[in-house]
Specification:
Distance between the termini: 22 Å
Number of helices: 6
Radius of gyration: 17 Å
Helix content: 25-40%
Strand order of the largest sheet: 1-2-5-6
CATH architecture: Alpha-Beta Complex
CATH superfamily: Creatinase/methionine aminopeptidase superfamily
Strand content: 15-25%
Length: 246
Amino acid sequence: MEKCLANNNGCLSGKHQPAQSLARKAMEQVAAEIKPGMSEAQVKALAEEKMSVLGSEGWWYHNVGALVLAGKGRSKLSVSGRDYRASEEVILGENDLVSLDFSPIVNGCWGDYARTIYMEDGHGKLEPEAPTGDEFAEGYEMELRLHRELVEWVRPETTYEEVSEHMSRILSEEGFENMDFHGNFGHSIEDEPGDRIYLEPGNKKTLGGHGKPFTFEPHIAKIGKEWGFKREQIYVFGEDGRIRPL
C-alpha cells in the first residue's frame, strides 16, 4: 500500500480528504439508522460496516475502526484503542447520547473524525441538527465554540502547548473539564501512530513548523455532570496562514 505523505502540501493536494470524506458520510449514515435499544457494540459494528462498504481499507488506530462510547458516565470515559471493548450491556435509550470516533484508511491515508450523536425522543441528531435538551445543547455549543476559537485564533507560529493552554483556560472559565486520559486536545497526522505529537503541555513545536495536518478533538464534560461530548476534525494551513478543516 502506498504511504500517504502527511505533510502540509500533500494534505492540501487532497491525500487525506477521501478518508475524511468517507468518515463523514459514514457518520451521517449511522446517525440516520441508529435506534433506541441498540447496544454500544451494535453501533460500533454498524459504523465499521458503513465505512467498509464505502471503501475503507482498514483501521489505523489499534485496528479499531469506530471507538463508540454511549450513555451517562460511559460517554465521559477516555480509553486507548488498545484497551477498548464495545459494551453489549450499554443500551441506547430514547434520550441518550453516543460519541463515535472513526479511523478509516483510504489510499494508505488516515481519516480521523469524531462526532456526538444525540438521541432525543428516539431520533438521532447529528450536527448541524442541534439537540434541544439543556444539558445536550450546552455540550454541543461548547464543542462548536472551541472549534471556532481554534480556527479564528491559531497561526503557524502557535505552539502545540499554547493550543492546550488556551483551550484549557476556556473550559475552566465555563465550568467544563477535559476528559482525555492523557490530557491532550489532539495530535499530528503521521504515517505511523507512534510518530504522533500532541496538543499538550510541554510540546513547544509550532503547528506550522512541524508542518503536518493535525486533529483537534476536545473530549469534554460539564464539571459534576454525567454526559461526555466529543468532536474531532483534521485541520490544515492554507496559503494565507489560516487553518481550515478537511
